[in-house]
Amino acid sequence: MSPVPFADRLIEASRRRGTVLCIGLDPFPDLIPTLFGPRTDPLAALTRFTQAAVEALADLPAAVKPQLGLFEAYGPDGYALCRYICETLTAHDTLVILDAKRGDIGTTAEGYARASLGRQPGFDADAVTVNAYMGLDTLRPFLNIARAHSKGVAVLVRTSNPGAVDFQDLKVDGRPLWTHVAQALCPLSTELLGASGWSGLMVVAGATYPEEARALRAMLPRNLFLVPGYGAQGAGAAAALAGFVPGPKGLEGGVVSSSRAILYPPAAQAAGNLADWRAAVRAAAQAAIADLRAAE
Amino acid sequence: MSPVPFADRLIEASRRRGTVLCIGLDPFPDLIPTLFGPRTDPLAALTRFTQAAVEALADLPAAVKPQLGLFEAYGPDGYALCRYICETLTAHDTLVILDAKRGDIGTTAEGYARASLGRQPGFDADAVTVNAYMGLDTLRPFLNIARAHSKGVAVLVRTSNPGAVDFQDLKVDGRPLWTHVAQALCPLSTELLGASGWSGLMVVAGATYPEEARALRAMLPRNLFLVPGYGAQGAGAAAALAGFVPGPKGLEGGVVSSSRAILYPPAAQAAGNLADWRAAVRAAAQAAIADLRAAE
Predict the structure, then answer these.
(1) B128: which of A171, B45, B116, B295 fits an S-S bond (Cβ 3.0–4.6 Å)?
(2) Which pTM was predicted?
């Protein structure tokens, strides 16, 4: 267990590696190259692919975000593999944001918090994504365990999918529901505050809505952002960075996540051997890092 | 795979067993009697306790609802155990509503839908609870897999925890957000409609707010309810049944879930052997069934 708050560890990693990029480790079954094994043995292909992705990419981004649902599709073995991948990332000194989108009441939320952020038999991730629809009391176990173990909690506020408008954008007192969720998080931010001045109570705010990211930054000046939707989901680097602010080594204030553009670029999909595949995904990650830096 | 829609299977089970009771299989680590093993080996105690609970209780309720988060707290082995428990319930001809509260976009939601409702390596549960905050597109993979496999989907609408007021009760156009979530589900209900006239697109509506359950029934006349919060969470049988309607064998229209009052009654906690424990939990389940029937 690190005694350094998650927020400070993420800011430090971002400065050290010179990027706010977070690589989304999304093992889409239909996109895993046959280089990693035949479609007839999907768990073996998943295992080899995700291990290779970690070995190829772990040193580059500020953090890696494994998408737990895509591992769970492979059953208990996929779930166990995801925990192993988290351990491997930690061994590479790379921060892990487990994308689990959990949320439940009381002791069940405590179960999910222990599973995601706790040590063995937990995933021991550095942060976890959570859904707050059920209410602030459902965040409490996550906040308590995060504070005790110097971990982070990333709350879904305004997501980047088309359906985000269905409920998140409904107007309450003349402004969107998601702003009320954000406002409710504000008083909790100090619980996970680091010496950097940033809070490890992250907010998930989609890159597809830059005006909203700016509004969110004004409401939550200390909360780190987890910005999905950069790259394949359509948003450019400037939009993804809309909620970021100047720091000593460039823009800071969170991480910007990209998955498909890095894990499945055409050159990687066409690669005939592991060395070519590795070079292609590293080049794609470095291109994303350069693209984000150019937009600052 | 059953060709009979989940809604019809739940109504049939409820009529056959003469109850709308759903037993929540919530293995709270601090409440598992030491009869099932020492606290120093929690996974062994969890395994013996949950297997004993299934053997003791599976024939009584209309359905059983395993609380996945409390299994995940034990890591990948707990996750695998929950799947095994689901298989065991199915072998007892008891319907399984997996309480997972999943929710994510696109292919990730598809991963969770396959994990929960799909056959091996999935849990093959009869229904799964989901969180719709991210939008209706996040329900699509669950609905598709549910329709293809004659399964159900239970959407969180108005939960029974104190924090439910934080966001679910915020007023949109003069009425609570949860009513907008309910309204949005209405057109989707026909996708999982059974010959009974009921839809397997269930709504989770807490027993602590009976007026709201009645309002919800008026909005969604065909959707089965999953009512948590009966028993230990404080709501009585009459409140829990507020959204139910007369059927050929008594009130119907969903299930009412109870966990603590059935799994951990004082007599079971004090039991010195398995036979006494078994008699105590069965008596508690039968008392809940009688309490619900008396309130009709």
Answers:
(1) B116
(2) 0.97
Interface of A with B in 159-218 (CB under 8 A): 159-168, 170-173, 177, 180-181, 184
Task: Locate B15 and state its tokens.
Answer: 């009529």
- Scanning the structure block, which residue is given the tokens 């067993």? B17
Residue in B201, B146, B129 with CA at minimum distance from that of residue A133: B129
Structure tokens given for B203: 């709504």
- The yes-or-no verdict on residue A194 having pLDDT over 90 is yes
Please give the Cα distance from A143 to A106 (Å, whole number): 12
Q: What is the pLDDT of residue B85?
A: 98
**Segments of chain B with pLDDT less than 50:** none
Facing residue for B132 by CB, picked from A167, A181, A184: A167
Q: Residue A24's pLDDT is what? A: 98
Please compute, for residue A115, the number of CA atoms within 13 A of its CA located in the half-sphere on the CB side: 29
| A–B CB contacts, 8 A cutoff, strictly below | 201
Rounded CA-CA distance A27/A208 in Å is 22
Please judge whether B166 and A135 are an interchain contact, meaning their C-beta atoms are less than 8 angstroms apart. yes
pLDDT score of A243: 95
Task: Show which residues of B are catalytic.
Answer: 101
Contact A108 B26 (CB under 8 A): yes
* pLDDT of A246 higher than 70: yes
Cβ of A136 under 8 Å from any chain B Cβ?
Answer: yes
Helix axes B106-117, B140-149, angle to 10 degrees: 30
Q: Tens digit of pLDDT for each residue in A52-74?
A: 999 999 999 999 999 999 999 99
